[in-house]
């Protein structure tokens, strides 16, 4: 009990207006900030766990879909959907560029 009185006297000396209430308020604010930070860390942790799950799921599905080679009339192909899409997009871009060049050459 004596230690408590000494602590209160010291705090009152350092902060004569608010005394222990100022210290309590400061500690309460620190607890609130720490709780907010903890909540943020927990949300980030949950986000990255979900991201990892999705990544592993995508990787597993990709491995099973590209594990075997497909044959079509004696031709074996290991190309994935991504490669086919990129080739198609590349040809579409070249087609647009060709049309632009033709329009520029026509004088329009």
From TrEMBL:
Q: Where is this region: Disordered?
A: 62-108
Q: Where is the LOB domain?
A: 2-42
Family to which this protein belongs: Belongs to the LOB domain-containing protein family.
Q: Where is the composition biased (Basic and acidic residues)?
A: 88-102
> Which Pfam family, an example, fits this chain?
LOB
Q: What is this protein called?
A: LOB domain-containing protein
**Which organism does this sequence originate in?**
Solanum tuberosum (Potato)
